[in-house]
Amino acid sequence: MVKGQHSHKLGKDLTQQAHTYIVQAWQDIRKSYFKPIRNCLYKRSAWNFISLFLVGVSLSVAISACSTPNVSKTDHASATSTDNINLTLVSYSVTSAAYEQIIPKFVEQWKKEHNQTVTFNQNYGASGSQTLAVIDGLEADIVHLSLAPDVNKLVQAGFIQPDWEKQAPNNAIVTKSVGAIATHDGNPKNIKAWADLTKNGINIVTANPKTSGGARWNFLSLWGSVIKTGGNENQAFDFVSKVYKNVPVLPKTARSATDVFFKENQGDALLNYENEMIFSTQNGKKISYVVPDVNISIDNPVAVVDKNVDKHSTRPIAEAFVNFLYTPVAQREFAKLGFRPVNSTVAKEVAANFPKIKTLFKAQDLGGWDTIQKKFFDEGGIFDKIQASKT
User: Fold this and answer.
1) What radius of gyration do the chain's Cα atoms show?
2) Interatomic CA distance for residues 252 and 206, integer angstroms
C-alpha cells in the first residue's frame, strides 16, 4: 500500500470510530438526561433548539477526533544535525583507560563532520557480569566484552542479531592480547614460565572464571600450554589443578585481581592480560613480568546492541563508533595501553613493542567457545572439578 492510500484509510477508520463513539454517547445522554428535560420543555421549538445545539457540539468533537494533532509532526520528525546524541558503552574492566583516550577523539571527529554533540555513558566491570547487567536492563548501545560467549548470551536473550560477527571488521574482534605472568619487582620467586606456577610455596592471584572473561583466558592459557606442546587432557588437568591449588582467592574481575596484587601486595604472581602488565608499568608500578612463548590469542569482540539502538534511534552513530574503533587513530590508543592492534598498519608500527610468541593458539584450537564453555566453565565442568579437588 502506498503512503497516500495508507493515510486515506487511516483517516477513514478514525472517522468511523469517532462516529460510532459519538452516536453511542449521544444515545446514552438522551436516555439518561434529556428525557426528563424534554418533559419539562412544553414547547417543541425549545427541544429542537437544544437538539441542534448538541448536534453541533458532537460534530465539533468528531472533527477534532479526526484531525492530526500538531505534536505528531514533531514526534516522528527525523533528528536534525544539531541534536545531541547519547550513547551507552558497556565494556569489561581493563578497557576503561583506553576509552578515556578514544572517546574524546570520536566525539571531536563526529562534531566536526556532522555538527552533532555526542555524549557517552560508560560502564565497566567483569565481562560476564556486564552481560547479565545488559540482560537485566542496562540499556547498552554498544558492548565491548572479553569473549565471544558473553556476546552470544545477548544473542540468546534477543538483544543482538545472530550475525553480529559479520557486522564489524575482523569478525568483530576489536582488541587482542596474550596471557602474562607478573611478579613483584626483581621476581623474588624466579617465576619465568607457566610451569613455575606449580611450585610449592607460591601464591597466585587470578580472577574467577565464573565472572571474569580475563580469568577464562588465563585458564585456557594454562590448559593449552600442555595440549599445544604434546600433552594429553589428563596431563593438562593435573597441571592446571596444581596451579589452582596455589590460588588462595579469586577476585571477581581482572582489574580487581590487579589491585589485589599491586595495591594490597598479595600473592607472588599475577595472571592477567599482557596489556594490564603494560598499563601497570606505565602507571608507575615496579613489576617484572613474562609473556610465555606458548600462549593464547586473547580476542575481544565488539557489537552493536540491536534491540537498544533501535529503541533509542542511535543505530547509525553506534555503528559509526564501532567502525571508528578499527581506525589507526583508535587502534594506536589501544596499542599505547598494551593491546595488540588488529589494524595491520598499526600492528607493523608497534611490532617491536611486543615479544613474539613461539606457539600462538586460539580458542578455536581448543574446540571453539560452545565446546569450551560446556567443557570447562558450566556447572560441573572441569573448572568446578579442579576447585573441588583443592579441598
Assistant:
1) 32
2) 9
Q: Per the structure block, which three cell numbers stand in for 31?
A: 436516555
Q: How far apart are CA 254 and CA 258, in angstroms?
A: 6
Pair 97, 279: CB distance under 8 Å: yes
DSSP 288-356: EEE--SEEE-EEEEEEE-HHHHHHHT-HHHHHHHHHHTTSHHHHHHHHHTTPBPSSHHHHHHTGGGSPP
DSSP state of 67: S
Q: What is the pLDDT of residues 297-338, one digit of tens each?
A: 999 999 999 999 999 999 999 999 999 999 999 999 999 999
Q: Are 85 and 118 in contact (CB under 8 A)?
A: yes
Q: Kindly tell me the burial class for residue 293, based on how many C-beta atoms sit within 10 Å of its own C-beta (0-12, 13-18, 19 or more).
A: middle
Name the one residue in this structure whose C-alpha cell is 582489574.
255
Listed in sequence order, the residues at least 6 apart from 114 whose beta carbon sits closer than 8 Å to its beta carbon are: 81
Give yes or no for a contact between 205 and 260, defined as CB atoms under 8 angstroms apart.
yes
Q: For residues 371 and 368, give the distance between their C-alpha atoms in angstroms, rounded to a whole number.
A: 6
Query: What is the CATH architecture assignment of 179-296+358-389?
Result: 3-Layer(aba) Sandwich (3.40)
**Which three three-digit cell numbers place residue 150?**
558473553
User: What's the distance, Cα to Cα, between the start and end of the chain in Å?
Assistant: 70
pLDDT digits (tens, 9 = 90+) for 36-77: 433 333 334 333 433 434 334 343 433 343 433 333 332 322
Q: In angstroms, rounded to a whole number, what is the distance separating the alpha carbons of residues 172 and 300?
A: 8
Low-confidence ranges of the chain (pLDDT < 70): 1-82
Hunting for cell 492530526 — which residue is that? 68
Q: For residue 144, which phi and psi values (nearest 5 degrees)? A: -125, 105
Q: Which CATH number fits domain 85-175+301-336: 3.40.190.10, 3.50.50.60, 1.10.510.10, 3.40.50.720?
A: 3.40.190.10
